[in-house]
Amino acid sequence: EFMQASWDIEEVQAKGIQHLGSFVKDKSAFPYLLTCTEVTTLAMKTHTDSPDLQVEGCTLLLEILSQALEQGVMMALDERVASCLLHTVGTKIPDSVEFLWFSEVAAENLRRVGLIPDLLSILGRFLHNDKICSSCCAVLWSLAVSEKNADQAVLESALPVTSAVLQTHLQDGDVAESACSALWALALQGCFTDSDYEPTAALLLDALRMNPERAVLVRNGCLALASLVRLSEIAALAVLLDPKGSGMELIKDEYHLHSDEPGVAEALCLLMHEMVQYDEVMLDMRSQKMEKLLSQIKLQFPFS
């Protein structure tokens, strides 16, 4: 009631949100969670120029959703709450999109109210903002990889935007890592047409070349390439015949750089496994003595 009576006073709203957050985990507070949600979203919309209040509000909203889940209740996240979170994500607090990443229940609810188109809109508007791009691509990966009844048209529309993010931030390891993960998820969902395989494979190879020391990026980039190769021989040939250098030589280099990383070795093996399903590609791999590399990997990880 005190918050409702003092909407225009930022300090009252910020302190009120903090105080609500201090007891929202108590089971006796459960009947009041909906009211807490209403006053919090209104405070966030009223004071959009306060970063601290926006962060506190996001944290409280996601804690409320988590408490609802623990109580066995799927609290509906209506458009008002979703738009409040997304407005915060897209305009005022770039890092706050990470709160969405941390909360499975938030992701589920936001998916229901159509988060992916909003994420794509945010990415399009903030293509040169590294923090927004990194966080949005991470959330896109989470949503796309777990989407059971995916709207294929929506996911396909994510491909050009995600590719543009990777192209723009190839030399930024954090963003490139998130974008590679998102492309991997889109490949798993089959969001590519024949005209997409070659340029996407080339883009992923560029990301590997420019960030060779980042094990997670190398792993996810190779997994994305493996998914593309599984779908089309065009992608396999693009890996072999990339004008910037042989993909097979790149695989060798990456393995030797990360020979103590089982995740990287596993991703490289999966990529080679997908490559050899095509006769022409397999012959080329033999000529480049890939069997030697496979023997080294087998010796390095005999129990994997």
From TrEMBL:
Keywords of this protein's UniProt record, alphabetized?
ATP-binding, Kinase, Nucleotide-binding, Serine/threonine-protein kinase, Transferase
Assigned EC number: 2.7.11.1
Q: Which domain of life is it from?
A: Eukaryota
Q: Which reaction does it catalyse?
A: L-seryl-[protein] + ATP = O-phospho-L-seryl-[protein] + ADP + H(+); L-threonyl-[protein] + ATP = O-phospho-L-threonyl-[protein] + ADP + H(+)
Q: Which residues form the signal peptide?
A: none
Q: Has the keyword Transmembrane helix been applied to this entry?
A: no
- GO function term, MF aspect, one: protein serine/threonine kinase activity
**Protein name, please?**
non-specific serine/threonine protein kinase
Organism annotation: Alaudala cheleensis
